[in-house]
Structures are given as C-alpha cells and as structure tokens.
Write a structure and sequence with these properties.
extended; mainly alpha; about 120 residues; 5 helices
C-alpha cells in the first residue's frame, strides 16, 4: 500500500461530483483508499477475464487469469454520485477489460491508411 498524506479536509463527494469535479475525486485520498480495498477484496485479479463479472453486453473470449490494476464503477458516478465510494459498486478489472467495458477498444483496431508512394525530398 502506498504512503499517503493525512486527510486534511472533509469532502462531500456526492455534491462535488454533481458539480463536475470528477478528476479531483479520482485523484483524492478517499478514492485511493476505496480502490485499494476493492483490489485487495478481489485479490488483484481481473474479474472480467476470470468470468466472475460482466456487464451483460460484453463477455470475455476465454477465461484467463490477468492482474487487475483498474477499479470500475458498476453504476457510473455521473448517474449516482452517492455510490462513488461504495466498494460494493466497484469491481477490479485489468486495463484491457476496462477498455472493453467502456467501448474504447473499438478504435484500437482501426487500420491506418498507408501512403501510396514513399516521399523523397
């Protein structure tokens, strides 16, 4: 567990997230503590590729053991800011699984256009 500074200010994260301070939340000590609890609960393994969790839309191609390094909110914090620090609303995922769940992996496989001729100057 990494060393953190002492908590100095109390934050009402549900109000601050509703105001749009999401990056401050993800960089906060409160989220760091909740993240560490979730990763320890799931034994630092990706629950998506282990086959224990899916979002109902995406499913893994095959079951494998992958190290988890990302914590995903099951119900997004934009919809329910009051569940931002609830560890029952979080699941441990690998970076690749998180990209699949968030539908950001579809841009990864787009082919780039090659030049027809080699430029010579």
């Amino acid at each position: 567990m990494k060393k953190r500074r002492k908590r100095r200010v109390y934050h009402d994260w549900s109000k601050e997230i509703a105001e749009g301070k999401i990056n401050q939340f993800y960089n906060s000590t409160d989220f760091d503590i909740a993240r560490e609890k979730v990763l320890a609960r799931d034994k630092y393994t990706c629950q998506f590729f282990l086959g224990k969790w899916n979002d109902g839309i995406h499913k893994p191609n095959k079951i494998k053991i992958v190290k988890a390094n990302v914590v995903h909110h099951i119900i997004p914090i934009k919809e329910r800011p009051d569940l931002a620090l609830d560890i029952n609303n979080m699941v441990s995922l690998s970076f690749e699984a998180h990209e699949i769940i968030e539908d950001r992996n579809k841009w990864k496989f787009l082919k780039t256009r090659k030049n027809l001729t080699k430029e010579k100057w």
